[in-house]
Design brief:
Number of domains: 2
Number of strands: 12
Strand order of the largest sheet: 7-8-9-10-11
């Protein structure tokens, strides 16, 4: 009986710790707001620079790069495709919402065509992501990546991440 009570207490403690961690993660992201024309104008009118900001993604992004190697880097086990560690480390780049990036270039071209180029350092690789304004929302959405000097066009059925910055605003 004592082991069951100890196990129950441990289980409740783990649930509480997990819930607190999720609340911290959500509150940590609650202060991120999308980059849009209003933010750009506010910063420009204040005399501040866009390169003073840290940039983040609204959601994680995984990019599989083509390095020209055609050798089989995977097996099929129990109905699942299993990639080798070498393949994963050399060809798969995963950017989380916690990877901060720095402004490389902001192309201030005719309204609606502005482009942000943000550099992220991911596992000792520099990944340049380009974001263009989404005409519907006004937010900047990722559309291409430059990795090892090679351009990759980004496509996703469920949508691509938008460009975010940290703010003390709580937009809900």
């Amino acid at each position: 009986m004592k082991n069951k009570v100890t196990g129950l207490i441990l289980c409740l403690l783990l649930i509480a710790v997990n819930a607190a961690g999720q609340e911290q993660r959500s509150s940590g992201q609650a202060n991120r707001i999308p980059v849009n024309q209003e933010i750009i104008t506010l910063i420009a009118d204040s005399g501040k620079n866009l390169d003073e900001l840290r940039y983040f993604l609204s959601e994680p992004l995984t990019i599989i790069i083509d390095d020209g190697v055609t050798e089989s880097a995977f097996n099929i086990r129990n109905g699942a495709i299993v990639f080798t560690d070498q393949y994963m480390s050399s060809r798969v780049i995963q950017l989380s919402v916690n990877h901060g990036g720095r402004l490389h270039v902001y192309y201030d071209v005719p309204a609606g065509s502005e482009i942000f180029e943000i550099i992220f350092n991911v596992e000792n690789r520099y990944v340049g992501l380009k974001f263009k304004r989404n005409p519907g929302s006004g937010n900047f959405i990722a559309f291409s990546a430059v990795i090892n000097g090679r351009l990759y066009n980004l496509e996703a059925e469920s949508g691509l991440p938008s460009l975010m910055i940290v703010s003390n605003l709580n937009l809900r």
